[in-house]
Amino acid sequence: MTLSAYDLTGRTAFVTGAASGIGRATAALLAVAGATVHCADLDERGLKETAALIARDGGTAHTHALDVTDRAALAAAVRSAGPLHVMAAIAGIMHTSPVLETLDEDLDRVLAVNFKGVLYACQEAARSMIASGTRGSIVTMASGAMDTASPGLLCYSVAKAAVVQLTKTLATETGPHGIRVNAVAPGWIRTPMTDRHEPAAQEQAEAAMVRHSPLGRVGEAEDIAHAVLHLASDASSFTTGQILRPNGGVAMPW
Questions:
Q1: Whole-number Å distance between alpha carbons of 152 and 160
Q2: What is the three-class DSSP state of 81?
Q3: In degrees, to the nearest 5, what angle opens at C-alpha 226 toward C-alphas 220 and 227?
Q4: 3-class SS at 228?
Q5: What is the mean pLDDT of residues 51-69?
Q6: Angle made by CA atoms 228, 76, 157, in degrees to the nearest 5
Q7: Is 120 in the active site?
Q8: CA-based Rg of the chain, rounded to a whole angstrom?
Q9: Cβ-Cβ contacts under 8 Å for 82 (sequence gap 6 or more)
Q10: Active-site residue among 6, 115, 156, 188?
């Protein structure tokens, strides 16, 4: 037995949300594993920084500045990448508001990015893999928020729960083509997205993570990137329709 199952040399990966946080860490790690990585995000500056990071480490990256809610733009970018072996649909946003103060535009925007954007990425990846006969891997990004009732996180939690159902359903439909579809559901991870919280709220969340995790620490983007690599690689060749929970062992609501 060797570690060659994690080798992605000669494969093409597409990562959404690659300009920062978990997306950037994932794109960089997939490149280290040998994949040619196509990085997509709205943040052009962040994309260039990610590509430069990958190039510095000897990898190959291509950038696509786009909004994942733009189905046509995302489809064109995926097609331009050629036959895909890996899709990591990571792009997402967070919105907080009490249920009674949640507006139509709040829900619409979160669902558009966190669910529809993932759906579009999965659809285009699956079409590419089926057309080329590639036994590829699609990895979506769920969240531990789907399991708990967290005040203020209705829109986010609902969208992530929808991603899980998408993941499981797509796994059943694409399995006959040799395509695997799995989700990663992180706990609280220190990223630019979570850094946008009010300082007091962020400190409270991180303290809760440390208190409830047997490991006693907050997660980092690289922790999640390694989970994505596992699901993207042949090391998980008999795994599909599953939810991997790198959450520091947290097993209870905060």
A1: 14
A2: coil
A3: 100
A4: helix
A5: 98
A6: 45
A7: no
A8: 17
A9: 12
A10: 156
| This prediction's pTM | 0.93
Average pLDDT over residues 204-231: 87
The predicted-structure confidence for 141-199, as pLDDT tens digits, reads as follows: 999 988 888 889 999 999 999 999 999 999 999 999 999 999 999 988 887 766 555 56
Contact 166, 140 (CB under 8 A): yes
194, 201 Cβ separation under 8 angstroms: no
* Superfamily grouping for domain 8-244: NAD(P)-binding Rossmann-like Domain (3.40.50.720)
Residue that is written with structure tokens 């535009």 in the block = 105
pLDDT (0 to 100) of residue 1: 47
Measuring CA to CA, how many Å separate 77 from each of 125, 127, 145, 231? Answer: 11, 13, 30, 23
**Residue 58 backbone class (left: φ over 0; alpha: ψ -120 to 50; beta: rest):** left
Tokens of 157: 């939690």
Cβ atoms of 58 and 93 closer than 8 Å? no
Q: Residue 192 carries which side chain, given as an amino acid letter?
A: P
What's the CA angle centered on 201, arms 196 and 207, to 5 degrees? 115
Joined together, the tokens standing for residue 39 give 């990085």
Residue 149 is encoded by which pair of tokens? Answer: 């009732």
